[in-house]
Amino acid sequence: MSEPHVTLDPRTLNPVEEKLRGPLEDQLSSALQAATVKVRQHYAGESVEQVTSMLLEQARAGLHPDIAAGFHPDHGQLRHVAEVIVAQAH
């Protein structure tokens, strides 16, 4: 599985977020990648939905609270990462 990467839609960003888009995408991607590693290492047979929730929870835990509060990744893409984790564990 390739490392998950967060890409922000510039149409949804305010001017400040747009100026910080690159570093913000890097930070969000890094948090999601770290969450993926941690969830994969601790996977113990949970369902895809549970793994999806765990990924989001772990990614948000790795971010500043203000950034975490605004981090709403695409559920379908996050679920895809969870599906890969579950499939690779079997």
Detail the topology: elements first, then pairings.
Layout: H1 15-19, H2 21-42, H3 48-61, H4 65-69, H5 75-89
Helix pairs in contact: 2-3, 3-5
Characterization of this structure:
With 90 residues, the protein is mainly alpha-helical. Helices cover 68% and strands 0% of the residues. The radius of gyration is 13 Å and the shape is elongated.
Tags for this entry?
about 90 residues; mainly alpha; 5 helices; about 70% helix; about 0% strand
Query: In terms of per-residue confidence, which ranges show pLDDT below 50 for 5 or more consecutive residues?
Result: none
Number of helices: 5
Structural class comes to mainly alpha
Q: What order do the helices and strands follow?
A: HHHHH
The biggest beta sheet reads: none
How does the overall form come out from the CA principal axes?
A: elongated
Give the distance, in angstroms, between the N- and C-terminal Cα atoms: 15 Å
Number of strands: 0
Overall helicity: 55-70%
Fraction of residues in β-strands: under 5%
Mean pLDDT: 94
Instruction: Write down the Rg.
Output: 13 Å
Tell me briefly what this model is.
The protein has 90 residues and is an all-alpha fold.
